[in-house]
Amino acid sequence: MKTKKQKLTLFLKTFLGLALVAWVLKGKMVDFSILSTFVLRPVNLVIAFGFLSTSAVLCTLRWRILVRGQGLHISFKDLFSLTMIGNFFNTFMPGSVGGDFIKAWYIAGKEPTKRTKAVFTVLLDRVLGLAVIIFYAAFTLVFFSDWLKEHRQLQTIAFSIWIFSGVSILGGFVFFLSALVSKGPLSKRLEQFVRRFNKTSKILEAAFLYRKQPIQIFAALALSSVSILSAIYFHSLQGKLLGLPLSLTQYFILVPLAVTASAVPLLPGGIGTGQLAFFTLFQWMGIENPELGGTLCTLVQIYTILFNCVGYLFYLRFKQMPQRIPSSQSENSHPSGAAFCSRQTV
Fold this sequence. Notes:
The protein is mainly alpha-helical. Helices cover 75% and strands 0% of the residues. The protein has one domain.
């Protein structure tokens, strides 16, 4: 049962999301007359499903690397099914992270003795995906320093992205280098201190398993890079159909920033936030007819929603939600990952 606080939060998110959609429509940030021309073109639909299928496969391969890194034995077929189920729920749950709770629920049920590790792979998979999106934008913005001087609104965003990227890269080096001193006295004391906090220790234990797997993590990042590259190129193809005067390089800035903004958990699939993000970025870039940005976002969202609905076929196979495991079978009698997800999604 949802608490009053959860119900209020859901109500506020829905209200803000609908208000945002109304603002998008009132501001004419989407040209619906153009959409009707391209959406149902068979060739364009096939191309869209091809790119989205490729992205789903790449994301599944990335998740598979993380799952194996935890010593979990789940087949690629099952992971792909869970990826499609997550995509399906992303279409009907707020933001673009709602499906992650469903994935965590299922994978925790499949690995009842290693629930924390199973759920951790879902969280890390999301973090790596978002990090690579931001890294793309950070790398591209370096080559647009002159252009940034003319757009003050983007300077703050650019510096924030560079700082985040720098801190993340530094943190990654420290994380992997810490494996070299893991047997030192200071490391042992820190480990003993952390073990006093059972929940934290289990999460850190799952994270520390990757310290000796830098190649696997880099491989996961590489798959994320290819996936985002595919998404950027897909947006550029749709932009050409709409007649947008943008170079492929400019899409490397626009798409990562807009996709990140779309992850704000208001309405399902980033509807509203995505349109506003694209429209605003097009304005800041000085592009004529910025409503084409919102139109591009809507076109891609339509194809994404249609593709994600295929996930319902996979959901029928997994429709029996995993039951909570008795505490005697849990990891040292701690709340299960499935139980955690149930509190978040029920």
